[in-house]
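Human: If only I could read backbone structure tokens as easily as an amino acid sequence. Underneath my words sits a plain record pairing an amino acid chain with its backbone structure tokens. Take your time, and here it is.
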Amino acid sequence: MKLNNSFIQSLAILVMLAELPQGTALKSQEISQRMDVSPTYLLKIAKKLKDAGLINSSASKNGGYTIKKDIRTISFLEVFEAVEENDTFLDKLDLNPIHNMFLSEKIVHEQELVVKNILLAAETEYKQTLAQHFVDEIAPKDASGKTLEINWKQIISEK
């Protein structure tokens, strides 16, 4: 389990879509252009966000992506689980060095269990922290505390 660029890019996509004026959608090429990422890579991320029920996708002349859920209700954990691998801290972990540290099999198994328990506790805390924070926390706000409305279509077309 680790954070990849797709997690940060997903947060950026969600904030961009939340800032759009009502009834406005962004096409994948517009988002990828603004974020300076490959259109193919962006499509993969957007599909994961759509499959997780975080964004809508509409294929039409005026279609594109829109936010589906209020960003005040989308936790960092929800985004993480949507776009990152579902490996745990213990997946792909080679514990064989512990076997070489001790001569007694009993001690090996005891210490291996200690390591596993520490890592499982760390993973639980990690996910609990992500669950306590929401996308809204990183969205720019106006003086009244509302998410800024930004016409990304216009900004992107002026580039």
DSSP finds seven helices and two strands in the chain. The mean pLDDT is 91. Residues 55 and 68 are 4 Å apart (CA to CA).
